[in-house]
Amino acid sequence: MNHPRRRSPLARAWASLSHNLVQKLAALGLALVVWYVATGEQRARVERSFDVPLQVVDNTPLPSGEGRRTVSDITETVRITLEGTRTRLDQVQPDRIEATLDVTGLPEGPFQRRVQVEAPADTRLVRYNPEQASGFIDAVVSQSFAVRLAVTEVPTNELVRLTVSPRVVTVTGAQRQVGGIASVVTAPETIEPGTSREVALIPLDSNGRAVTDVALRPQRVTVSRVDVGEILVREVSVQLSPQTGDWDVRSVRFTPARVRLTGSVSALRNLTTVQATVPLRAGSYSAPATLNLPAGVVSLDNVTADLVVRPQQP
């Protein structure tokens, strides 16, 4: 009796696989076509633009004792266009794109330099704007200024004393900015009798415009007002006291130009001007002035002097 021959496992597997083989291959091909079409948009390479902050690099070594440098008048952002898959570009954040401007070794003054851009991995840099950046390199300096009071008017026939603390502030910033400051004044405030108030400070240029992009230390001062009542008050002009020594005072301007004085009738009767002493040094600067007053006379105003002083020529 003949028994049917048993097929091997490999033969059985092939028989199962080859059963309806054409239909199976057709279904697999259709699935591949559907997958390719469905993912085609994600695989396609597209372009996308980003606004990236421009970072300034300055590793210029400075001589001992000198401070740092600052760069101004440059564009803040760079428009960068990248190419990549939609999925990859969806993952890119602007802070992961590097746009740098290296000014190391450049001298102080105006400059123009190429912007360097580094695209993230799996993307291609297409273009960016601007490709060149221009600006100004300046030294960071600090300068002291006497604080000027700016308050609403007070009665001239009352003993009103306005004091400010501290009287001197330090301004730090680019040399062009700090050099353009003519005075530092308190923000206009109404100070009630017997009160004190913290007020902000405003650096001004020679035309009375506020100077920005500088740091003040401190940023605010305390203004105090003390009223004693109605008394005899006389207003006189301020003059620079005679100077001796090695300095040539080219110009001087007092603020206020006229001060209110109080005292006895006899002390004020013949007083038409008052002399002021100011510490002298070479340069253009402002400083508190000390009034040379007769005995028994008190000034109701703080005086500041703006001077231009040069060394005396032999």
Automatic annotation (TrEMBL):
A Pfam short name: YbbR
Signal peptide: none
Transmembrane annotation, as ranges: none
UniProt-listed PANTHER family: CDAA REGULATORY PROTEIN CDAR (PTHR37804)
UniProt-recorded name of the protein: YbbR domain-containing protein
Source species: Deinobacterium chartae
